[in-house]
Amino acid sequence: MGRLTGGDPSLLRRINSAVVLHALRGADCPTFTDLTRITGLSRPTVEGVVEGLMELGLVMEAAPGEGEARRQGRPARRFRFRAEAGHLLGIEIGPHRVAALLSGLDGRIIGASSREATETASADERLDRVRVVVSDVLRRAGVARSSLRAVGVGSPGIVEADGTVRLGTALPEWTGLALGERLRRSFRCPVLVENDANAAAVAEHWKGAATESDDIVFVLAGLSPGAGSLIGGRLHRGYGGAAGEIGALHLLGREVTPEKLLSTTDEPLHPLDERAVARVFAMAKQGDVGAKQAMERFIQRLVHDVAALVLALDPELVVIGGWAAGLDGVLDPLRDELSRYCLRPPRVTLSLLGEAAVATGALRLALDHVEEQLFAVDATVTARR
């Protein structure tokens, strides 16, 4: 689009279109009169905008209500936003599974699919699994790939703006992978790649445990924890996308690597995977002294990692997600220790979205991209009559 100036008629049309479309999405089949009242625009302007949106396929005329149909005379025309005019995908690529959520332009989920993956799968094998999951969810929902308007992706690692994984130690062959470029070959729409913990933070703020808070930290608690944070309701990625990589804090002390923290013997835990750690926690529940000590060390490490972020960011809320969030005894030590270390301890709670958090956040990122195109209007410019 060319440069727009304040007096440019095309800018005025764009503003009015966004205002009317936003009103249509938020109202229940409004009439022209309703839209005129909601938007403050003139009746002729509203009628012209609605006709244009109908030509674009974003709006359609709705059937009159049952009461209106019974009345004599022609009922007022009603209109609705066509959420089915396009679709969005949110994809999670993780060590153990690939998952996808499908929605219309209103963000309401209409399909889901997932497949297990192995930790040792190559990058090509993992991306093949993504293609299988996407094809499955589209087929089951009866949605054509061509109707996709945007795709969001949540992936482990430090992700650059173009979707390249600058550093990703959780998945084989992931460091340096041009993930965004590889995935764009499969879609004829924008593909937005984000760190998985960042995506999960967005999800919890959208429809999880943090809907009432704008300053939050989401901790993706695992063997190497990561975190995503929102400051003033906006995702904080940092200068190079590496904000929240608290899993690297163990590098500050050579004796606190996960392999040593979780060992029940004098030797490092090997292999270090979630199944092995789950066994350690199961032994702790059964009263094994060495396992209980290992569990306490693991939780203490998590406490220190989270405390570092809390001291730096002063969030209102800390949300704990990831597989470790399902372990008994995680919340109370976190609350107690944060009270000791932090000047203003935050509230601490568990994720409400569970394993769906990353894919849900990826879907929200896709929705944000589309909303920017359809609804965003510079706050300094008001709708003109």
Write the layout of secondary structure elements.
Blueprint: H1 9-26, H2 32-39, H3 43-55, E1 59-62, H4 66-70, E2 78-81, E3 87-93, E4 97-104, E5 109-116, H5 123-141, E6 148-155, E7 158-159, E8 165-167, H6 179-184, E9 191-195, H7 196-207, E10 216-220, E11 226-231, E12 234-236, H8 258-261, H9 274-285, H10 289-313, E13 317-321, H11 331-341, E14 347-350, H12 357-374
Parallel strand pairs: 3-6, 6-9, 10-13, 13-14
Antiparallel strand pairs: 1-2, 3-4, 4-5, 7-8, 10-11, 11-12
Task: Walk me through this protein's architecture.
The strands form 4 sheets. The protein has a 5-stranded mixed β-sheet. Strands 12-11-10-13-14 form a 5-stranded mixed β-sheet, with helices on both faces. Mean pLDDT is 87; it is low at 1-7 and 379-385. The chain has helices spanning 9-26, 32-39, 43-55, 66-70, 123-141, 179-184, 196-207, 258-261, 274-285, 289-313, 331-341, 357-374; strands at residues 59-62, 78-81, 87-93, 97-104, 109-116, 148-155, 158-159, 165-167, 191-195, 216-220, 226-231, 234-236, 317-321, 347-350. By secondary structure, it is of the alpha/beta class.
What is the string of SSEs from the N terminus onward? HHHEHEEEEHEEEHEHEEEHHHEHEH
Helix content: 25-40%
Shape: elongated
Largest sheet properties: 5 strands, mixed
Low-confidence stretches at least 5 residues in length (pLDDT < 50)? 1-7, 379-385
Radius of gyration: 24 Å
Average pLDDT: 87
How much of the residues is beta strand, in percent?
A: 15-25%
Count all strands and give the number.
14
Structural class: alpha/beta
- Record the strand order, biggest sheet: 5-4-3-6-9
What's the helix count? 12
Distance between the termini: 24 Å
